[in-house]
Amino acid sequence: NQNYKGHGSSKGKEREQRALIRFKTTLSNTLTDVLRNRPGWVEVKDEGEWDFYWCDVSWLRENFDHTYMDEHVRISHFRNHYELTRKNYMVKNLKRFRKQLEREAGRLEAAKCDFFPKTFEMPCEYHLFVEEFRKNPGITWIMKPVARSQGKGIFLFRRLKDVMDWRKGTAGRRLASLEAQPARNTVNPSSSHDTRGSDDQKDDMPVENYVAQRYIENPYLIGGRKFDLRVYVLVMSYLPLRAWLYRDGFARFSNTRFTLNSIDDQYVHLTNVAVQKTSPDYHPKKGCKWMLQRFRQYLASRHGPEAVEALFRDMDNIFVRSLQSVHKVIISDKHCFELYGYDILIDEDLKPWLLEVNASPSLTASSQEDYELKTCLLEDTLHVVDMEGRLTGREKRVGGFDLMWNDGPVSREDGAPDTSGTGNSVTNTHLGCINNRKEQLRQLFCSLQVQKKASS
Ligand SMILES: Nc1ncnc2c1ncn2[C@@H]1O[C@H](COP(=O)(O)OP(=O)(O)O)[C@@H](O)[C@H]1O
Ligand SMILES: [Mg+2]
Questions:
Q1: Average pLDDT value for the chain
Q2: pLDDT per residue as tens digits for the range 202-234
Q3: Residues less than 5 Å from ion ligand 2, measured at CB
Q4: Beta strand pairing status for 338-346 and 352-358?
Q5: Residue 180 CA: distances (Å) to CA of 183, 193, 346
Q6: From the CB of 90, is ligand 1 less than 6 Å away?
Q7: What is the rounded distance in angstroms from the CA atom of residue 309 to the CA atom of residue 324?
Q8: Coil, strand or helix: which one is 192?
Q9: CB of 215 sitting under 6 A from ligand 1
Q10: C-alpha of residue 226 to centroid of ligand 1, in Å
Q11: Pocket mutation for ligand 1, best pick of 89, 254, 345, 357 (most atoms within 8 Å of C-beta)
Q12: Which key words are in the record (predicted)?
């Protein structure tokens, strides 16, 4: 059967015996550089057998279910990642998780999930939305297609008429597409489940669902400009949940001063690099990013270290709870791992909000600094995935990654004092802190070699 044509079907061979790791990828950006430069890794094309595949989600959708994979083989997505990475499903799962927490642990615990803006799925929750809309006259809402990226298809509104126009348009398109393709069930959401990709376009979807979400009208501004944060989380397993947080990330700034007077101006309101790059004020050299370290220092100098600690702890809470909300829903498969890009917006009260989680965060570099960040991020991802079989599995840190959750919270081993005031031990996260990854990796691999020698 051609579909089952061996993916890593070097049956019977032990992991250590494999001299070369055969990789495949559909992307061409910093990832290709990292994979090609990795010692002992060789690229395979077309139908060649592979041990490691960094695929896009459309490949996964079409092929995963009929691809045989050997024990050691690894692939860069979970089968139903969309439960977290599609805007409507993410919210559905978070709402369900919040209810469950309320039942099992009480209101206070459930309130720890209040980090996503009020959201309705459209058109199916249209009437609920209208009810909410009427309760809060004058506020701003944002409409976002559930499965597109890079700010495409988004608009802000304050009048119900705008949504009614949108609805008429969607209903009209839906009817037309059904008439044009009577054999295809275009309204079945499962047919468009995985349609989200990194840089790929999803504009060919005949019927599109949206979410209507409360717009955060009071974003924290720096130099009068709005920004959001991109943070990377690596999940190695859902059952048990095992997740790593990367120290580096960045803030993405808008080029235009923030105002609520021009809600139609995407350069003011959407911080996606893909949007800002096309702005007339964009300077390719200056770019529109700050590394997280710079951002953290800036905040500390203005608000003091405690406020910053609290903000970053609240962000850790977002990463862990969002993963917990899907940990029983996502099909855990030992072949799968996933590197997520979280979009976090901070408001002027220093409260972080979760906007969305990306299954295929952009790996294209927009500057030299960005290239370095992404290259290191990917190198460290491959270290954690550990095709080479070098780790013991007990590591709490690998390069820029800190183990954040391992079937439970992971505490810092350095015995740092608890500044959280909760009496909990300090969690093992260092977002926006110094990332001396090179030194750490050197020490780690040195000591692993010593252990190996000692045991052989
Ligand atoms: N609820 C919101 N409040 C304020 N700004 C938002 C909100 N949702 C999205 N944005 C802005 O729009 C941008 C794109 O939204 P996002 O949900 O990340 O969709 P996309 O998949 O197109 O990136 C965000 O990076 C942020 O700048
Ligand atoms: Mg986004």
A1: 87
A2: 333 445 799 999 999 999 999 999 999 999 999
A3: 343
A4: antiparallel
A5: 9, 21, 44
A6: no
A7: 22
A8: helix
A9: yes
A10: 11
A11: 345
A12: ATP-binding, Ligase, Nucleotide-binding
**Cα dist. 336→69, 283, 323, 378, 395 in Å?**
11, 39, 15, 16, 19
* d(C-alpha 262, C-alpha 259), whole Å: 7
Residue labelled with tokens 């299954």: 359
147 lines ligand 1 (CB under 6 A): no
Identity of the amino acid at 279:
S
Is the Cβ–Cβ distance between 432 and 247 less than 8 Å?
yes
Could you give the C-alpha distances from 423 to 56, 77, 426, 427, 447, in angstroms and in order?
43, 36, 9, 12, 33
* From 101-115, 349-363, 401-415, the region with the lowest mean pLDDT: 401-415
pLDDT tens digits, one per residue of 151-206: 999 999 999 999 888 888 766 565 555 445 433 333 333 333 333 333 333 333 44
Q: Does the beta carbon of 266 lie inside 6 Å of ligand 1?
A: no
Q: Which atom of ligand 1 is nearest to the CA of 355?
A: 17
**Amino acid identity for residue 170 in this structure:** T
Residue with the smallest CA separation from ligand 1 atom 14 is: 151
The C-alpha atoms of residue 343 and residue 355 are separated, in whole angstroms, by 5
Q: What single DSSP character describes residue 353?
A: E
Q: Please tell me the number of the ligand nearest to residue 147's CA.
A: 1
Token pair listed for 204: 């060919």
Q: For ligand 1, is residue 142 a contact (CB within 6 Å)?
A: yes
Residue whose C-alpha is closest to residue 27's, from 382, 376, 363: 363
Q: Which ligand is nearest to the CA of 142?
A: 1
The encoded tokens of residue 269 equal 């309101």
Query: Which atom number of ligand 1 is nearest to the Cα of residue 272?
Result: 25
Distance, CA 344 to ligand 2 centroid (Å)?
9
Q: How many CA atoms lie within 13 A of 360 on its CB side?
A: 29
User: Which parts of 254-337 are beta strand (E)?
Assistant: 289-291
State if residue 144 touches ligand 1 by the CB under 6 angstroms criterion: yes
Residue count of the chain, please give it. 456
Q: How far, in Å, from the CA of 355 to the mean position of ligand 1?
A: 6
CA distance 363 to 28: 9
**Nearest of 398, 105, 92 to residue 242 by alpha carbon:** 398
Q: Give 238's strand partners.
A: 241
Which DSSP letter does residue 424 get?
A: P
Beta bridge partners of 103: none
| 141-145/74-75 β-pairing | unpaired
Q: Supply the residue whose CA is at minimum distance from atom 2 of ligand 1.
A: 215
Which of 148, 270, 342 to mutate for ligand 1's pocket (most ligand atoms within 8 Å of CB)?
Answer: 270
The pLDDT assigned to 126 comes to 93
